[in-house]
Every structure is written in C-alpha cells, then in structure tokens.
Amino acid sequence: MLLAQIHLTLPVWVNDLVDDRHVYASDEDKVGLAIALSAGNLEHRTGGPFGALVFDGEGRVVAAGVNRVVPHNCSVAHAEIMAYMSAQQRLQRFRLNDGGGRYVLATSSQPCCQCYGATVWAGVDELLIGARSTDVEELTEFDEGPLPADWKGELERRGIAVRTDILRDDARKVLAVYGQEGPAY
Q: How far apart are CA 24 and CA 19, in angstroms?
C-alpha cells in the first residue's frame, strides 16, 4: 500500500530558541537567528548546518526550519523548505503574500538550487542570506547545484529583494565546524 501521509518534523529544541512573539527588527537579527538555528542543529545532532525562518512584515517569526534531510530520509527537507511548508500550513495559503502582507525569508546560507526554486514560488518579498553558496562548497562536502548566472537579478525581477553577506563570518563558522567534524546525527 502506498503511504497516504508524509510526516516531517522540526526538533523540539527549535521552540526553545525561537520566540514567535518577539520582533526581530533588523536584518542582522533575522539572519542571526537563522545562524543560531544552524548551530543548534549541529549542537543537538538533529540535522545539517542550515537554518531558515519566515518573518512577517513586522519582524515576527511565522515559521522556522532546520535541515532534516538525513533524520527524515527526505532530500527536500532543507531548512528553507521546512520553513516555507510550516509557514504555508500556519497561514493556510501556498503563496505566503497572496493574502496581503509582506514576508521575508532569512537563511543562514544562500539557498541551493532546490530552495532557490521554492523561493521563486513561495510568496516571499525579501531574501536575507548569511553565507554564500561558495562558502558552503568550500567548507563542507555539499554541492549546492546549478543556479542561473544572474540568480539575484532573477529573484529581483520577480519582486523578491535580495540582501547577501549578512553576518557572513558567523555563518561561515558554523559551516566550518560541520566541515571539520562531519555529519553526526
């Protein structure tokens, strides 16, 4: 019999770290929390070194995500995808900004080709990035996949503002830890 339900979860420690009532006012606050999620995922041995959050226009967390690929045996369980799916469920719409309002994705590292594609369709208005994909490939064994040569321009033409290198050194430190210690989940 085919499975009729897919069940993906976030680790319980995420709720201890993320306060959905707090206003994360600056881009650095938002990406800093994504980096804290990526570090927490390594510390708790619950997935890979990636964290992401969807924020509303006021700076409140709508949803969080961490990498859960290995624990769930699911290649799409990347931090950005987990955050998008959780936000879409919470708001009950597949394009976050279709009901009005402004939504931001903050991520510890530049989205891979899969998460880039999801970003095009998720309904966010802004993308905030810590480490670059070149940092991910330099410091870990991950292959981020092919992106359009002008990936930023493609997103901006679709109404998604992009800001990169936010707390990049902090994000690189988490990736370096993972690269040195290797997977342990």
A: 10
Q: In what order do the strands lie in the sheet with 61-66?
A: 61-66, 51-56, 103-109, 126-131, 161-163
* Residues in CB range of 7: below 8 A, 6 or more apart: none
CA distance 64 to 41: 12
User: At CB < 8 A and 24+ separation, what contacts does 68-73 make?
Assistant: 68/8, 68/9, 68/10, 70/183, 70/185, 71/46, 71/47, 71/185, 72/8, 72/9
- Give CA–CA dist 104/57, Å, rounded: 7
How would you class 151 by CB atoms within 10 Å of its CB: exposed for 0-12, middle for 13-18, buried for 19 or more? middle
Count Cα neighbours of 175 within 13 Å in the Cβ-side half-sphere.
Answer: 24
What does the alpha-carbon distance between residue 104 and residue 107 come to, in Å, rounded to a whole number? 10
Query: Distance between alpha carbon 25 and the CA centroid of its chain, in Å?
Result: 18
What is the amino acid identity at position 87? A
Reading the block at residue 131, the tokens are 């480490």
Q: Where do runs of H (alpha helix) occur along the chain?
A: 13-17, 27-43, 69-72, 79-91, 113-122, 133-139, 151-157, 168-181
Residues 86-139: pLDDT tens digits?
Answer: 999 999 999 999 988 999 999 999 999 999 999 999 999 999 999 999 999 999
